[in-house]
Design goal:
Blueprint: E1 2-5, H1 11-22, E2 26-31, H2 35-46, E3 53-57, H3 63-77, E4 82-85, H4 100-128, E5 131-138, H5 140-143, H6 149-169, E6 174-181, H7 194-202, H8 212-223, E7 234-237
Parallel strand pairs: 1-2, 1-4, 2-3, 4-5, 5-6, 6-7
Helix pairs in contact: 1-8, 3-4, 4-6
The structure holds NADP nicotinamide-adenine-dinucleotide phosphate.
């Protein structure tokens, strides 16, 4: 199986890529900022055995960059069977203090990127009558978070897009699902102070933050034959939060 995982230089995306490689799948990795750092991660994954990894830095908020990423994937492995839309940015702050360019960037990176990538992934998947798309979403997409209004809106959009696209693509054999993450221990939460972390943990029934690898397990499941009858689902991986 050939998978493409956006935003996979670190955090959840990196764990998803690693889990797919360990399972014997080929993975195209991606990041925004540093091709050199991405290549170091690619080397680490290729040292694991299993599938093969390659990587290309590209801004998935831009359609032309997504097209470049797909050409790179096709050149290396052929058709993409599984697309994991993971790349995103968070912005923490009062909404009325955000500049238009700040909330536009959040929507472009978190939601428009998912549309860009799906628009490019779907035609060959529909032709082959098979494929799986997994969008990485957030509990805030359902509930909304104070000081993360634009981020919450982007993830609410990802959830609605997932359900709608699943209806459209299902008759052609393409499944579209989302994993809705709770608080996962990555750089995205590095801004939290220790007492803020303690307060958050008190609200989580499983009494801890999630691990990136626990999201990766859900993504691998949704990509595989075990999830053959699951589409349009937004699955919570949130410790019951
Ligand atoms: N961590 C959580 O608690 C949590 C909770 C709910 C949902 N999520 C979701 O889980 C996903 C991964 O989050 P994370 O915590 O692993 O994030 P992270 O540690 O901040 O990593 C973000 C990744 O996305 C890449 N990226 C950012 N903007 C990009 C762009 N425009 N084009 C391509 N790549 C881009 C980054 O690349 P660089 O290394 O180049 O910057 C990095 O690889 C996101 O969709 C996030 O919304 C996370």
């Amino acid at each position: 199986m050939n998978a493409l995982v956006t935003g996979s230089s670190r955090g959840i995306g990196r764990s998803v890529a690693e889990r797919f490689v360990r399972a014997g799948h080929n993975v195209v990795m991606n990041c925004l900022t540093s091709q050199e750092r991405l290549e170091a991660v690619v080397r680490e994954l290729n040292a694991l055995g299993g599938g093969q990894a390659v990587g290309l830095s590209a801004d998935v908020a831009e359609y032309s960059e997504c097209a470049r990423l797909f050409s790179y994937a096709e050149k290396n492995f052929g058709d993409v069977d599984v697309l994991v839309n993971n790349a995103a940015v968070s912005y923490v702050g009062l909404f009325h203090e955000m500049r238009p360019e700040d909330y536009s960037r959040v929507i472009n990176v978190n939601l428009i990127s998912v549309m860009n990538m799906c628009a490019l992934a779907l035609p060959p998947m529909l032709r082959r009558r098979g494929g799986a798309i997994i969008n990485v979403s957030s509990v805030w997409g359902r509930r909304g978070a104070s000081c993360e209004a634009a981020y919450s809106a982007s993830k609410g959009g990802v959830n609605a897009f997932t359900r709608a696209l699943a209806k459209e693509a299902g008759p052609s054999g393409v499944r579209v699902n989302a994993v809705s993450c709770g608080v996962i221990d990555t750089d995205m939460n590095a801004f939290l102070l220790s007492d803020e972390k303690t307060a958050l943990i008190e609200e989580i029934p499983l009494c801890r933050f999630g691990l990136p690898g626990e999201v990766a397990e859900a993504a691998l499941f949704l990509a595989g034959a075990g999830a053959a009858y699951i589409t349009g689902a937004v699955i919570d991986v949130d410790g019951g939060y």
